[in-house]
């Protein structure tokens, strides 16, 4: 049985490739870009279509939260006329489609990898729903956001209430009429809550411990300041939290309408009702931990701490920048409600925005820690011929984003080239 890839390459079942890449998002295609430059034959296997998550799992009003200049995919940096703006969904998809054309990778789409097995004496067997392939080296570019998290308490919420995860949300019109409980105040939860609020919906928001940051401070985007401060160049090995930073929730901020802060306190002043962490559903009551004040204070402390570090950088380097006062809250919850009655609240939708969990159960290789996370150093696993790319903080803050993926892909491909050279040298020596 033969199959044709997206660039016209014909592959057969049981074919052997020097490299197989799993996943055709920005991570997988960036790896393909450098493998093509190195003239290393390879195959990319994608479960759906290329860049599937960007094309199908973003809401309609979605925009980047980092400025356009940080779109630095290999050979495809942003070249538009608004480098400090924020591309919206259709513009992002257009940018990525152009990248797909430039790379022209050999992608086998709509093909599910069911198992990857390390085989002796070396190499890998890659089983798919279209047959088995073999590879000397494997790059896993399937990301780390595989299974949407919905807690077991959701099973007790009546079937009359529509439940949806953030990855399925498109717009307010998609939801049944009535009020909405958004669970989670991270980057997606905060932005979706705002989207619903702007659409005229009554929103209840169950907050968590997500931090926040300013959009603009002292005359510039905070991202610009942090870039100058080399924050985005810091490897995970030098971060104060070390590998623990990989578990951090992203700061909430938005690029919508040219970019602005997200301030949950202002949401409350505008009519959104805020709660602490959602804890349970029982007897027709949503139950919350009374930690709303703590959650808000923690987010504001992070916000001001980042700004203070920028202040110090400005002072140390004698930079001429306008003064700006630190954030001071002007709203506090009078009392924290610990319950919310489903019927009385008029809630018809619960929208879960509490993230994803990784699932690498299909990868049979002894490289995982007790939490099911792959052990690696800058994407290189202890097996030395199995690699990961595109994971959050794989190496730096930008590893899972458009800004840092190129450097990670280039590093991994150089490692792959070295492995090939070593194998060839051994073969010549034994000949």
From TrEMBL:
Coiled coil: none annotated. GO terms for molecular function: flavin adenine dinucleotide binding; monooxygenase activity. It comes from the Bacteria. The keyword Oxidoreductase applies. The keyword Oxidoreductase applies. Keywords: Oxidoreductase. NCBIfam families: MSMEG_0569_nitr (TIGR04046). This is FAD-dependent oxidoreductase.
């Amino acid at each position: 049985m033969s199959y044709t890839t997206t660039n016209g390459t014909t592959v057969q079942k049981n074919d052997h490739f020097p490299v197989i890449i799993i996943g055709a998002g920005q991570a997988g295609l960036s790896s393909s870009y450098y493998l093509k430059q190195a003239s290393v034959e390879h195959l990319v296997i994608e479960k759906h279509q290329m860049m599937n998550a960007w094309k199908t799992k973003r809401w309609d009003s979605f925009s980047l939260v980092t400025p356009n200049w940080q779109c630095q995919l290999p050979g495809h940096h942003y070249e538009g006329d608004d480098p400090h703006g924020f591309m919206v969904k259709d513009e992002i998809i257009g940018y990525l489609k152009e990248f797909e054309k430039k790379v022209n990778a050999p992608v086998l789409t709509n093909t599910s990898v069911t198992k990857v097995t390390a085989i002796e004496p070396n190499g890998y067997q890659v089983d798919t729903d279209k047959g088995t392939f073999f590879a000397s080296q494997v790059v896993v570019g399937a990301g780390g956001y595989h299974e949407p998290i919905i807690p077991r308490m959701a099973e007790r919420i009546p079937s009359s209430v529509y439940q949806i995860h953030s990855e399925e949300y498109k717009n307010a019109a998609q939801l049944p009429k009535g009020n909405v409980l958004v669970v989670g105040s991270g980057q997606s939860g905060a932005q979706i809550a705002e989207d619903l609020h702007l659409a005229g919906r009554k929103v209840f928001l169950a907050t968590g411990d997500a931090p926040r940051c300013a959009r603009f401070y002292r005359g510039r985007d905070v991202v610009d300041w942090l870039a100058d401060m080399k924050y985005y160049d810091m490897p995970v090995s030098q971060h104060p939290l070390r590998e623990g930073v990989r578990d951090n929730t992203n700061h909430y901020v938005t690029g919508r309408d040219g970019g602005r802060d997200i301030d949950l306190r202002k949401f409350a002043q505008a009519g959104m009702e805020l709660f602490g962490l959602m804890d349970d559903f029982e007897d027709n009551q949503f139950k919350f931990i009374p930690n709303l004040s703590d959650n808000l204070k923690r987010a504001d402390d992070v916000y001001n701490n980042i700004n203070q570090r920028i202040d110090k950088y400005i002072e140390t380097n004698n930079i001429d920048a306008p003064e700006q006062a630190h954030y001071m809250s002007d709203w506090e919850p009078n009392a924290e409600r610990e319950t919310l009655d489903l019927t009385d609240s008029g809630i018809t939708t619960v929208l879960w925005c509490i993230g994803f969990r990784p699932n690498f159960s299909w990868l049979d290789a002894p490289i995982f820690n007790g939490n099911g996370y792959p052990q690696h150093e800058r994407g290189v696993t202890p097996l030395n011929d199995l690699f990961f790319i595109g994971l959050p903080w794989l190496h730096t803050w930008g590893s899972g984003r458009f800004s840092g993926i190129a450097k990670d892909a280039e590093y991994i491909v150089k490692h792959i080239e070295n492995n090939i050279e070593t194998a060839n040298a051994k073969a010549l020596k034994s000949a």
